[in-house]
Amino acid sequence: MKKSEKSLLDSVTGGLLLHKGGEASIYLLNVGSAPYVLKWYNDGFSFNENVIKNTNKLHMPGLYRIEEWGKRNESLYLVYDYVDGIPSDKLGVIPVAVALVALRQVVATLSLLRKQGVSHGDLNPANVIFSGDGNELRTVLIDCGIVGPGALSYAAPERFQGKLADEKSDLFSLGLLLYRWIAGEDLIKADGFEAFAEQMTNIDSVNITETLYAKGFFGTPEGAVQLAALEPLWSGLLRSGLTERIEDFDELDELLEIALDKVVHGEIALANCVTQYAKSINRPDCDRNAVLKVPNRLEKDFPFAVHKKNNWLKWGALGVSILILALIVLLLSGGTMRFGIDATGDQLLKRSRVMESSTEIENTPVLKVDSLLLDLPVPASEQ
């Protein structure tokens, strides 16, 4: 199941728990001083491996990159590159124009995924990261391929009935995502699976324009224009029947473009609006941008044991090097040199006695002294 035979998990030097949820626990990993994210699934939860494999082949700016997946200690896991940014569920109310621009970016990524036969299946604010530097705004999708309905507050009615994610169900989730961005809270609130399923099935009875107006965000003439511009999106996305929703991502992109033209007049005005918002969330002193340090040690509750074989090899090699160095120092010391010369002299004396006693040998061989002996310093004479 892994992308490669060598697991990144065997090279982890630090791990920090970021979130513990009902589906999985999320950890920030340190692998070779580089940050990665580990999604460690709880018992009974899993991912769609075909979706993961297809997503793994895609390298695009608006999509996270999966590095590895598999099973360890009887638990499924995913490892993917850390996306530097702010999950959109931490952003509160987002200006309508910015929300529409961001949704168009998400739709563009989903459209490319769809061409590879992949549907996201769990579109919710936590899985859309607002990333970028300075005046740049960019969205990045994470966490594709869930088995099950995903976040219940954003799941289409058919997902509660066990249907797999597809383009239609993702469209429904996008409507709820857009509402959350511009209202700062979920449209549907319930307690438990059955309650959410019932409310999603009856969503046609919710007048979203009136709901937004009642919150007081759109009580100005400008707000009235924005409400009118958004109406086709609600009526095309938040419908319980599949045939009542808009056809596909391409049609949604056209509706978003039309809504943007009504909300903001001109490309310059739109660019200024997006730039101003990007600067506000990308400031280093923004309270949402707390620096997340890559951990250099493992937490006590880390879900698996990290092998330390490489460390033992490293220290073993260092020990051998130290031993060799110590032997060289001993050989170069005076006492060691004296011992070396005395021992060599004894050997030469024994060999010469053997040669003197061998009267049958006509040609006495020439005694050869090792070159090492010739290079040895003469020891100082004793007083």
Describe the model:
By secondary structure, this protein is α+β, with helices and mostly antiparallel strands. It has two domains: about 10-80, Phosphorylase Kinase, domain 1 (2-Layer Sandwich), CATH 3.30.200.20; about 85-280, Transferase(Phosphotransferase) domain 1 (Transferase(Phosphotransferase), domain 1), CATH 1.10.510.10. It is about 40% helix and about 15% strand. The chain has helices at about 50-55, 95-115, 165-185, 195-200, 210-215, 220-235, 250-265, 265-280, 310-330, 335-355, 370-375, and strands at about 10-20, 25-30, 35-40, 65-70, 75-80, 85, 130, 140. The radius of gyration is 35 Å and the shape is elongated.
**Computed Rg:** 35 Å
Mean pLDDT: 84
Q: Which superfamily, in CATH terms, is the homologous superfamily of the largest domain?
A: Transferase(Phosphotransferase) domain 1
Specify the biggest β-sheet. 5 strands, antiparallel
Find the CATH topology of the largest domain: Transferase(Phosphotransferase), domain 1
Question: Quick one: how many beta strands?
Answer: 8
Q: What does this entry show, briefly?
A:
The protein has 383 residues and is of the alpha+beta class. Helix content is 42%, strand content 13%.
